[in-house]
Amino acid sequence: MVKVKRWIKGGELNESNVDQDSILDDCGNLLDKSCSHEILGEVVFEGDDGKFYVITVEAVIAEGNPDYIKSVLEEEDE
Description:
Layout: H1 20-33, H2 37-40, E1 44-46, E2 52-54, H3 66-77
Antiparallel strand pairs: 1-2
């Protein structure tokens, strides 16, 4: 589990979140408040492989692209 060492930018998230579980809970609450389920509506389809699929809107924690991170840090230093 990833824990927050320091926040650079928190966006709409509560920067008192200290780990990925609390961040994702916060994201889920923000998505619910924004009615994110209405963005795509209910989507279910069957693929040619016989499996059924759904499409959802969600928050994902991913490692940042180094070029993007560099530019964000440079902005913060200005």
